[in-house]
Design a protein that fits this description.
The protein is α+β, with helices and mostly antiparallel strands. It has one domain. It has two helices and four strands; from the N terminus they run αβββαβ. The protein has a two-stranded parallel sheet with strand order 1-4. β2 and β3 form a beta hairpin. The chain is elongated. The relative contact order is 0.20.
């Protein structure tokens, strides 16, 4: 998450458009069915601080990266 903080600083803030993530280890405690995730407390605090709502990847863990929506 420190890398995201640095990126936000370099960019001058949080991007206005969606940022897509793919089950970041520090953010996701558990993957449930579908797109449902159990997020870590640290990630929830990070999101609340930056007023940031990430969009999960549309790719399933078994789908090839080339099928990921952009």
């Amino acid at each position: 998450m420190e890398g995201l903080v640095e990126a936000f600083n370099v960019l001058g803030g949080v991007p206005a458009r969606h940022i897509r993530y793919d089950n970041l280890k520090p953010a996701v405690n558990r993957i449930c069915t579908g797109r449902s995730r159990v997020e870590s407390e640290r990630w929830l605090t990070f999101r609340a601080h930056y007023v940031h709502v990430p969009v999960g990847s549309s790719r399933t863990p078994t789908a090839p990266a080339s099928s990921m929506a952009v």
